Amino acid sequence: MINVDYVIRMMDEHYMSQKILAVSMHMSESCVSRILSGQRSGSLAFLEGLARAFPDEDLRSFLKEDDSAKAVSLQQEQKGVRDEDQKSH
User: pLDDT at position 47, please?
Assistant: First the structure.
């Protein structure tokens, strides 16, 4: 789930309106508005858009803490699988 408060804080720090954010994310302003207002949940495309709009930010910062922990766990799990694959070759 998207940490909307963090997105809004980043918008404030970068002096971005929703319109500018939407343009930076390559998304419609209405889609961004619906997600930021809680009418819709964020998607992978939304997260990718945030990466375009805020390239220096860690994407995990845009996720709520429980989702961020899941993302870290998944990354570690994927790394372990890759490490095992390399050892077997």
Answer: 92
Contacts of 23 (CB under 8 A, 6+ apart): none
Residues of the chain with pLDDT under 50: 68
Write the CA distances from 6 to 36, 79, 81, 83, integer angstroms.
Answer: 10, 28, 32, 34
Cα of 8 vs its chain's centroid, Å: 13
The pLDDT score that the predictor gives to residue 76 is 59
Measuring CA to CA, how many Å separate 71 from each of 16, 18, 22, 75? Answer: 27, 26, 24, 6
Q: Does residue 38 come out as left (phi exceeding 0), alpha (psi in the -120 to 50 range) or beta?
A: left
Which has the closest alpha carbon to 67: 42, 32, 30? 42
Q: With contact defined as beta carbons under 8 Å apart, do 59 and 47 qualify?
A: yes
pLDDT for residue 36 = 93
Topology (CATH level 3) of domain 4-88: 434 Repressor (Amino-terminal Domain) (1.10.260)
